[in-house]
Write a structure and sequence with these properties.
Blueprint (H helix, E strand, L loop, with lengths): L1 H6 L51 H8 L4 E5 L2 E7 L3 E10 L2 E11 L8 H14 L1
Antiparallel strand pairs: 1-2, 2-3, 3-4
Length: 133
């Protein structure tokens, strides 16, 4: 009962919180812009060290960082881009969004045999080969 009475208070939520100024040109009671309306941070110049940080990345940036693919598969709104190192393949699954292709998933496998390969290991090998070339 005490919680309900606390919620029933007569606070005025039509005005911005104390210390928050309304946006120029917006009504005094208008809410601040959403996070989605804010510009996204700049894309880093260099590839991240962690392969999982590629998830959400634009395809054009991925290709700039990783170089040419050895295989591309188009399947509806999805594409699979395969990058290769000497010992492994890194398969990158991208999905079409309004602003272009974006990385959704990564998987790795050995070029020969059935040996398990971690995506992080294969990614590191591909980046090392890119730097060496």
């Amino acid at each position: 009962m005490l919680l309900l009475s606390a919620c029933a208070g007569g606070a005025d939520y039509s005005a911005p919180p104390q210390g928050v100024q309304p946006q120029p040109g917006s009504p005094a009671g208008a809410p601040p812009p959403s996070v989605a309306a804010l510009p996204s941070p700049a894309t880093p110049v260099n590839p991240p060290p962690d392969v999982q940080q590629l998830v959400g990345l634009k395809g054009e940036v991925l290709r700039k960082w990783m170089g040419d693919t050895v295989f591309v598969r188009h399947d509806g709104i999805a594409e699979i881009w395969r990058f290769a190192a000497d010992t492994c393949f890194l398969d990158v699954f991208l999905y079409r969004e309004p602003d272009g292709l974006r990385v959704a998933h990564l998987d790795a496998r050995a070029r020969q045999g059935t040996k398990s390969v971690l995506p992080q290991t294969c990614y590191g090998q591909i980046l090392a080969q890119q730097r060496a070339s």
